[in-house]
Design a protein that fits this description.
about 210 residues; alpha+beta; 60s Ribosomal Protein L30, Chain: A; 8-stranded mixed beta sheet; about 30% strand
Length: about 210
């Protein structure tokens, strides 16, 4: 069994939380393409809690972020039935009250996490994200979009992530999320089908 409790001298995983949902019926009928959404959260110690705002965060990131990316994406792939089934993705972090928002950013917004999540989930798009600083039990709505075509509106969706006892003040909750398909009944078109919105049209709407 993979050892997940410690990734380095300065970070420990206290808990892993997996959430998975499937919309069976929406607006009275089954979706044409049923999709499952999932999030995996790792509750980790904040290696920078209590340090000055001038602390260089980059030194530890290359060591700490890659194994988190691997762990969370492996769990997502297992939960959703394989990487080939995943069509949308997102990422997030919730920082405990003794930390800074920047501490969460250090773990999810660098190539050592974001680029690896994209690679492990076989995507091409920039990964959309959410972050927050909060007390334990905070719910964070994690946005997702298509892993290859970010402008595909059918895949603009969210999944809620919450760990009841995390983050503690000196912890960070690091989250990866994914979906196997679009919203239940997508029908607002896409950039490829949008009409050209010109200044004349906008002026007509205003009047």
């Amino acid at each position: 069994m993979q050892e997940v409790s410690r990734f380095g001298a300065d970070i420990t995983i206290r808990k892993l939380s997996l959430y998975r949902e499937e919309t069976v019926t929406e607006a009275g009928q089954a979706p044409a393409r049923p999709a499952c959404r999932a999030s995996v959260a790792a509750v980790v110690t904040n290696p920078w809690a209590g340090t000055p705002a001038t602390t260089d965060l980059s030194a530890a990131v290359s060591e700490l972020a890659p194994p988190l990316a691997r762990l969370l994406t492996d769990r997502l792939i297992d939960a959703l039935g394989g990487v080939d089934r995943i069509e949308a993705f997102g990422k997030a972090a919730i920082v405990g009250t003794a930390g800074e928002i920047e501490h969460g950013g250090a773990l999810i917004h660098t190539p050592y996490f974001g680029n690896l999540v994209r690679e492990f989930l076989q995507g091409e798009s920039i990964i959309c994200f959410a972050d927050s600083r909060a007390d334990a039990g905070e719910t964070l709505v994690v946005p997702m979009w298509h892993k290859e075509h970010a402008a595909t509106r059918s895949h603009y969706q969210t999944v809620s992530a919450r760990v009841p006892d995390a983050p503690r003040a000196d912890e960070i909750v690091v989250i990866a999320a994914a979906s196997t398909g679009p919203r239940p009944h997508p029908r607002i078109g896409d950039r490829t089908t949008d009409p050209a919105i010109t200044a004349q049209i906008l002026e007509a709407v205003r009047s």
